[in-house]
Amino acid sequence: MLGVTGLTAGYGRIEVLHNVDLAVDAGEIVAIVGANGAGKTTLMNVLAGIHPPFAGSITYEGNDITAMPAHVRVASGIVLVPQGRRIFGPLTVEDNLRLGAYRSAADRSDLTAMEEMFPILAERRGQGAGGLSGGQQQMLAIARALMARPRLLLLDEPSMGLAPLIVEQIFDALRTRHKREGTTIVVVEQNVSAALAFADRGIVMETGRIVAAGPSADLLNDTAVQDAFLGAEN
User: Fold this and answer.
1) What is the rounded distance in angstroms from the CA atom of residue 15 to the CA atom of residue 185?
2) Quick one: CA dihedral 193, 1, 157, 99, positive or negative?
3) Is 124:132 a contact under the CB 8 Å cutoff?
4) Could you tell me the pTM of the whole model?
5) Quick one: which of 83, 85, 84, 88 has its CA closest to 130?
6) Helices H, strands E: what count in the chain?
7) Cβ atoms of 39 and 96 closer than 8 Å
8) In what helix (H) or strand (E) does residue 65 lie, and over which residues does it extend?
């Protein structure tokens, strides 16, 4: 579904990603893990069309999308849940969800599905989104993205700043959704254990390069990979 070849990107003259190659098959859950500063968020922003690469190419479902604008990628089925959630605080929970559907044919049934996925959103439907807790805002950000009916969902640090119980609830809800819909998911995380427990396959990044990859269970059990690249809980 997704192919990345020779991807190099950065800011100004500073190169952050160095000749990155990766592939994601339809229906997979892939976790991209690594310490802060590894280039994970830059990679996600390039995949979403928010940040242009210096070099390399991106293909999606067999088509070159390297120069495709972000809003066109959303319409084609690529949707990003950004780091920091970036909900619209003054708007209600329901209005945030409806905005997620602006490029899709989502209807009331989609809203109902999101409220079933995260029941707290039904309880807070008419409340200003800015008044939600951090965990509730993350649930809203994910549900807003799902309102776009993505075929490829990009999640950037969904566990950031959240209590372990909330992180578990979010990953459980996403796992249930994946089993039902088959949505391809790429998740970037510093919480290595949670991400690899959620994913089928893991990719380890260090200073803008991919340094290890394989089935999640193998990475979790590989002492050399843990010690060299993942640390205790980066």
Assistant:
1) 26
2) negative
3) yes
4) 0.90
5) 88
6) 10, 10
7) no
8) none
